[in-house]
Amino acid sequence: MDIYLIKLIIAHLIGDFFLQPNTWVKDKEQKKLKSTKLYLHVAVHVALIFLVFLSFNVWKIALTIGVAHLIIDALKSVIQSNKNARILFFVDQVLHFSSIVALWHLFYKGNLNIVFLNDLHTWILISGTLFLTLPTSIVMRVIIAKWIPDQPDSPKSLENAGKYIGILERTLIFLFILTNHFEAVGFLLAAKSIFRFGDLKEKHDLKLTEYVLIGTLLSFGIAIVTAMLTQRLIA
Questions:
Q1: Which residues form the signal peptide (predicted)?
Q2: Domain map (residue ranges) of the chain
Q3: Are 69 and 45 in contact (CB under 8 A)?
Q4: CA distance 99 to 92
Q5: 140: closest CA among 210, 211, 231, 228?
Q6: Which of 52, 80, 145, 221 is 20 to 30 A from 18, comparing alpha carbons?
Q7: Other CB atoms closer than 10 Å to residue 49's CB: what's the count?
Q8: 110 Cβ contact list (under 8 Å, min separation 6)
């Protein structure tokens, strides 16, 4: 990785996440192109590029990135609404990083080494990770569907929270095993048991407890087998 690209990314991260107060974000959302905070935010990004390089000789790329940042943030402020705010956040960041990489390539003739995309091991890792997300969630739902307990009086949980918790835990297990940290899998299981089974104990519902236990062990088991199989294939 080129040091110039790293410095440009650091400047962006500091400018967008450390030196942008929530009051500036709200001001941009409300006043859009008339917001002075929009232009102040861009000025901060330009100044940070000078700072991380400790030189004024980078004024061309600093100003160019500043203009690109202004265009992206201006477009975001114009089209943003309550419905699309979350997705636009990620689109905004993808565009910012893409513009940084493109301008780095333009000004410094930099090239990203993407030879790993032609490596079989990379695609095996991607396949294993993808399998442990939605495909495994669907497989588990089919397997334990007949045991879903009927709980009309139970408090409502966050929408799809269980699905995303399962995806996160399986992804972490996958990472732990591939990096040879098996002890972290036990720690994760213990942590989940403390939070999850503590609530179940208070309800005194044996069927619900057994249902959650089956789901947890099945989720962990699939993640462990997938990780060990992946580890064998890339060895």
A1: none
A2: 3-108, 115-234
A3: yes
A4: 11
A5: 211
A6: 80
A7: 23
A8: 2, 4, 5, 104
Mean pLDDT (the chain) is 90
Task: Find the angle CA(130)-CA(136)-CA(141) to the nearest 5 degrees.
Answer: 150
> What does pTM read for this prediction?
0.80
Please check the confidence at residue 42 and state whether its pLDDT lies above 60.
Answer: yes
The per-residue pLDDT for range 44-77, each reduced to its tens digit, is 999 999 999 999 999 999 999 999 999 999 999 9
Structure tokens at 78: 């114009």
The DSSP secondary-structure symbol of 154 reads: S
CB atoms within 10 A of CB 224: 17
190: tokens are: 């213990």
Q: Write down the pLDDT at residue 218.
A: 94
What letter represents residue 68's amino acid? A
Structure confidence by residue, pLDDT tens digits, 6-40: 999 999 999 999 999 999 999 999 999 999 999 99
**Interior/surface letters 79-89, b for 16+ CB within 10 angstroms, e for the rest:** ebeeeeeeebe
Q: Please say whether the beta carbons of 74 and 38 come within 8 A.
A: yes
Question: Which alpha helices (H) appear in 14-108, and where do they start and end?
Answer: 22-31, 36-53, 59-79, 85-108
The tokens for 194 are: 């403390």
First to last CA, the chain: 26
Here the contacts of 136-140 (C-beta below 8 Å, separation 24 or greater) are 136/166, 136/167, 136/170, 136/219, 136/222, 136/223, 136/226, 137/163, 137/166, 137/167, 139/222, 140/166, 140/215, 140/218, 140/219, 140/222
